[in-house]
Amino acid sequence: MTQVTERVVTERVVTERTADEVAVCDAAPDAVEATVNYILDTGETPYTFSGGPGSTFVESHGTSDPRRVVIHDGRPDAGRFVLDRNGFRFIRHDTKVVSFFDQDELRRVYYPEMEELVKAETGASRVVVFDHTLRTADDDFREEHKIREPVLRVHNDYTEWSGPQRVRDLLPDEAETLLQRRFAIVQVWRPIRLPVENFPLAICDAGSMHPQDLVISERRYPNRVGQTYAIANNPDHHWYWFPRMRREEAIVFKVYDSMKDGRARWTAHTAFDDPTAPRDAKPRESIEIRTLAFF
Question: The pTM is what?
Fold first, then answer.
């Protein structure tokens, strides 16, 4: 991708760190080598089938292409990441949510918090939260609460087609007017209880991605078919993770942007098995929120 020429709306530099944050930076290696699961582009359309609301059933079809990659600790450089250049931002952000497993509280407290956060990070004039997903690496807890597992596939959640289509699905009366202006789909990922010790989120610098890396994949549900991008391996990819993320930390990242002026439009991401995780690592628990941002 070309260098973004437009002035970035928000680029805050982290100037202070708590003692805990310094300890995390000192303890974590500068980089780890780990396996991420790309897709092998065979010419056939890969797809994932997901059950309806309340179901944890997920079944994926496609030829996986596992690769060993270097994943860099992004904490020391957190202040230099820019949403419109790198596709993501790592931030400190407190929440007033008591229990992320209380659906009413999520919609009453967390959704408005996320609307304001995405407005501040993107400069959007209007933000609509339309979905969230809770995930855990604990099999029993996942089944009990009917939530999903970490995704161990490199992907981007929307495509050139499915980004605008999501606006049409969610805001049918306004869609055609809204789609005449710039809009983006922006997600926010955070741990919900304990610090993340394994299966953290790795994110690829959007500036290191190329159009040929994007492979259309169908997301099949009982009532509709969507599209995501599976990602093919490219040695240019530059990966980051943020060790032992905590509840008051979040990653804000773009999975679609309608502007085609050289800014970041997609951000490949995946969970990965961290080789430095302790033997008795607590199961990861996280939430990702999905928003439409209109400019």
Answer: 0.87
> What is the rounded distance in angstroms from the CA atom of residue 21 to the CA atom of residue 89?
17
- 201-204 and 269-271 strand pairing: antiparallel
Q: Which of 116, 139, 136 is nearest to 126 (CA)?
A: 116
Q: Specify the pairing of strand 88-92 against strand 249-257.
A: antiparallel
Contacts of 268 (CB under 8 A, 6+ apart): 154, 155, 156, 203, 204, 209, 213, 229, 231, 237
At a CB cut-off of 8 Å and minimum separation 6, what does 146 contact?
A: 54, 55, 56
For residue range 200-221, list pLDDT tens digits in order. 999 999 999 999 999 999 988 8
Between CA 288 and CA 263 the distance in angstroms is 23
DSSP 160: T
Q: Residue 60 contacts by C-beta under 8 Å, 6 or more apart in sequence?
A: 46, 47, 48, 49, 153
Q: Which residues pair with 226 in a beta bridge?
A: 219
